[in-house]
Design brief:
This protein is 71% helix and 4% strand. The protein has helices at residues 8-11, 13-23, 25-35, 39-59, 63-74, 76-90, 96-119, 122-131, 158-182, 192-210, 216-225, 227-246, and strands spanning 5-7, 135-138, 141-144. Strand 2 and strand 3 form a beta hairpin.
Length: 258
Amino acid sequence: MNNIIRLVQTEKNEIYIPFISLGCIPLVLPLCIYFGFDLLLYLGAGSATFITLMLLERKYPSSIFNFIVACPIYLFGVALYAMSLVVVLSAGEMNPLYASLAIISGVGKILVDGIIIRKLTPEAVVNALIERQRVSMSQRGIVVTPPWASDLFTEFSRGEAVLIWSVRAILGAACAWAYFRYGPVMYSSTGAVERLPHGIALAGFPIAFFLAPLWQIPFMYYCHKQADQLVDAAVKQRRKDEKKEKNGDNDAPEWKWL
């Protein structure tokens, strides 16, 4: 068994390849309106590069290599934020409301991630993965599925919780307003280009806040530092699942080599 720690999204082809091939198109298409559709060629080249790196990483497993392959996933929220900002500025539609959303989203993300990272410890990382059975084995190493929310492995003070949920509530309301204000009429081609910057400003900045799991980078770093514990946990979980399956326990999770 190799003690290499791998992110679940880079382990599964059915997640990574569609994400790299199609998931980044919404980031580039709005920019094409203002900077030309030649950007699609760069997107294709970038997608092909990362898919090639993913295939190479499968042949030569490495934790550092896996981190490089996962960079588009880690930084997708940052890219969405940058795209939203560029589109709004290029369209000349920046106003106090959109500027406020951009500031709340950007500064809020820095503050929230800073709080999470400051509280993050190797023990909390290992316990969160083991207790919630989010670590498994594959032929290329240990596969880790980080918790979808920081609340699942971090405790916040009352003041920190109020700050975090206030930012989430403001940006969540803005995203909902974007849908009700622009979503139902976006199917019409009439005035779509004029509406696009407004819809992106109201939805892009909030979504970027929620899709920027920057705390996952130090989270995965701690996973690398505690690889031995995660290997032991994955082996024990595999044996436990196999035992339940052998005993005919239909409720036991089915073990599969990824």
